[in-house]
Amino acid sequence: MRPLNIAVLASGRGTNLQAIIDSIEAGALDAKVVAVLSDRPDPLAFRRAREHGIPVLFVDPAGYRSREAYDAALVEALSAFRPDAVALAGFMRIVTPVLLEAFPRRVVNIHPALLPAFPGLNAQAQAVAYGVRYSGCTVHFVDEGMDTGPVILQSVVPVYQDDTPETLAERILAKEHKTYPAALQLLAEGRLQIRGRRVVIDWDGRVPRKPRDCVLEWQKIKDIQEDRCNE
Description:
The protein is α/β, with parallel strands linked by helices. It has helices at residues 15-25, 44-51, 67-79, 97-102, 123-130, 165-188, 212-230, and strands at 4-9, 31-38, 56-58, 85-88, 107-111, 134-141, 151-158, 192-195, 198-201.
């Protein structure tokens, strides 16, 4: 089985791009980043890509009269790299059906909240303001809505009473760097099936009701919360 060819769309620092690259180089992700594209001329994500010999391309949104026209330009640019999947990693634009139809069920995104809670911008600030006890990150297939696509994987972190949006964001980001490559590996192995709103993961022909790693993750968070209460 050949590696999954991934094109990454990024607008900023590219820390999730770096996590994907690191996972590939560590042998944990059977994939290749074939290109990094951005709507900004020189994001830090480009510098990360260049350090690993990955082609970069700035697709300037100026001059396009609509989001659809811009996405058509993105599709043309992406097609030259023949990606199997398109990974949004801090790409600060809402993609349109033009892009989604060019890569059906192959566009994925990561969001710093447990969707469907807190979609859109400033998800960490939303979580702190709402007073939730848990937050986390979600990897999902992208659809036409804002952070509404079928969920692939989620990871959970506790929210402490003294958290700020910044401290919570840091905790969530550490989870993002593990969860995104894990979800992409499932995609690379052909284990994901979309059934309506649900993503079914095929674990060697079986779908466990309670994945052991998820149970352990929740128990770990419960223990952390209890430790904080006893301090």
